[in-house]
Amino acid sequence: QVQLDVSGGGSVQAGESQRLSCAASGRSFSAYALGWFRQAPGREREFVAAIDWRIGYTYYADSVKGRFTISRDNAKNTIYLQMNSLNPEDTAVYYCAADLMGQSAGRQPTNIRMYDFWGQGTQVTVAS
């Protein structure tokens, strides 16, 4: 089974940038999609960005489109989330997740229910 190790996170000022990494490890790693989600206190976990692992197509929530960029490094089995122009509304615990079973096959991997394996969260705090 794959393991997802997240690095990055911390506290920044509004308008600044931050980068998160999610490294997948495990024997013969394979996935349909990898995605980023976030959860603020008292709120449901929500979709942020995702990438089709096989093709490289990217998808974004409207709230982060134009500010966040998801990318991948196939050689390292790693995805990144570059977060620019951060604002206090971006404050949340960010999670990396994988669709290993193929629930997103043939569809946009933007639904949280498509993901079956999760890494630990990392706190991102944006101060005004």
For the structure shown, list the relevant keywords:
globular, mainly beta, 128 residues, 4-stranded antiparallel β-sheet
Describe the structure.
It contains no helices and eleven strands. It has 128 residues and is mostly beta strands.
Q: Could you give the topology of this structure?
A:
Blueprint: E1 3-7, E2 10-13, E3 18-25, E4 33-39, E5 46-52, E6 58-60, E7 68-73, E8 78-83, E9 92-99, E10 117-118, E11 122-127
Overview in brief:
With 128 residues, the protein is an all-beta fold. Helices cover 0% and strands 48% of the residues.
User: What's the Cα radius of gyration?
Assistant: 14 Å
Question: What is the end-to-end distance?
Answer: 40 Å
Strand content: over 45%
By DSSP (H or I, 4+ residues per run), the number of helices equals 0
Describe the main β-sheet briefly.
7 strands, mixed
- What are the low-pLDDT stretches, counting only 5+ consecutive residues below 50? none
